[in-house]
Amino acid sequence: MPASRPQRGSLLLLLPIGLLLALVALGFAWAGGWIGDDGLTPQTMVGTAEASGSPHPGFRRAHSKGICIIGTFTPAPGAAQLSTARVFSQASTPVLGRFSNPGNDPYSPDNKAAVRGMALQLKTDDGQEWRMAMNSFPFFASSTPEGFQAMNAAKLPDPATGKPDPEKMKAVLARYPEIMKFMEWSKNAPVPDSLANTRFNGVNAFRLIDAQGTQRTVRWSMRPHAPFAAANPEQLKSEPRDYLASDLDRRLAAAPLEWDLVMQFAAPGDPIEDPSKPWPDSRQETKAGTLTLTRAEPQAAGPCRDLNFDPLILPKGIAGTDDPVLHARSSVYSVSFNRREREISQGKLQNGSTR
Fold it and tell me: Between vectors from CA 115 to CA 112 and to CA 117, what angle results, nearest 5°?
């Protein structure tokens, strides 16, 4: 028996290390907003997205319908003073991206989408990447992942009626009242008649770090050069299901399309970790560069198809904040990506599916 004492002693020495690792993991989970009253997980959130419609193996669980886009990013003069990220100092950076519709149906009509997405990958000559995930709404639906999950769960059809239970949504709005503001926006905001004149917003806050180590908190947006024109709801009803894609092809055939990347700087007291609260328009802004799109490709075999646009893949000089929604998006995107890649490897695609 004496020979077992050193082993027992070694185990005791390892206990503090294990405890430390557990605390570190707990800290990451807390920072990411994954420990709360509801015990929410990214797997649960992805499962709810899957339950919102018919299954489509091999596709993204949200924003399933999309178009690959290709172009370049050119920094504005003086942009290198904002951040040490190489994208602001090299002459231009190739861009691979994706326009998308909401929902989990890759075959849904795109002309009825009130919300649109723009995701981008900028890869500089030093091998670093910056991935963005932006949407056409000006602020997020909820201040927390728990609120967003509760809203989506309340939208699911009740098995008894085949329709959402309005009492469930009333309970959600009572607990997360900020969601009502988003619902009002989605009902009343004019919808652009083209992807080319849609503004896309990164509603989460990030930090730009300059050469002196100074950090400034920002939210960014892509603002189109094409003038805004509101869609006619009645006209859209008669348009084909791929109206936005066809319109994009037509415009790109005529000329490249451009958006300005604009940084909005936080002022003292502005909410940094709550994307449901927009900052006032009076906040300081600066143009950081211009995105130029030159062509689009169907996502079925396009270069954007298998890319995970994780918003926390950032280059040196740009850092995320502790916004729990931002960290939730990163985790949910990862779970969704892994599920669809597993389905593809197992050959579970629907017959005739081109993804």
Answer: 120
Helix 42-51 crosses helix 324-345 at what angle (to 10 degrees)? 60
pLDDT digits 0-9 by tens, 285-341 = 999 999 999 999 999 889 999 999 999 999 999 999 999 999 999 999 999 999 988
* CB 129, CB 112: distance < 8 Å: no
How far is it, in rounded angstroms, from Cα 223 to Cα 208? Answer: 19
Q: Per this entry, what is the length of the chain?
A: 355
Catalytic (active site) residue 56: no
Question: Tokens representing 244?
Answer: 């936005």
Give the count of beta carbons closer than 10 Å to the beta carbon of residue 278: 19
SS3 199: coil
Q: Would you list the DSSP string of 275-329?
A: TTSPPPTTS-EEEEEEEEEEEEEETTSSTTTT----TT---TTEEE---HHHHHH
Provide the strand spans (E) within 54-102: 66-75, 93-100
Segment 199-237, tens digit of pLDDT: 999 999 999 999 999 999 999 999 999 999 998 877 667
> Quick check: 123 and 129 in contact, CB under 8 A?
yes
Q: Which of 61, 53, 89 is nearest to 73 (CA)?
A: 89
pLDDT digit string (tens) for 84-95? 999 999 999 999
Catalytic position from the list 56, 63, 225, 327: 63
Domain residue ranges in the chain: 65-137+196-323, 138-188
What distance in Å separates the CA atoms of residue 163 and residue 87, rounded to the nearest whole number? 48
pTM for the full predicted model: 0.86
CATH number of 65-137+196-323: 2.40.180.10
Q: State whether residue 174 is helix, strand or coil.
A: helix
Burial class (CB in 10 A: 0-12, 13-18, 19+), 332: buried
Question: Which of 108-112, 155-159, 241-245 shows the lowest per-residue confidence on average (mean pLDDT)?
Answer: 108-112
As a whole number, the mean pLDDT across the chain is 88
Q: What's the confidence (pLDDT) of residue 350?
A: 52
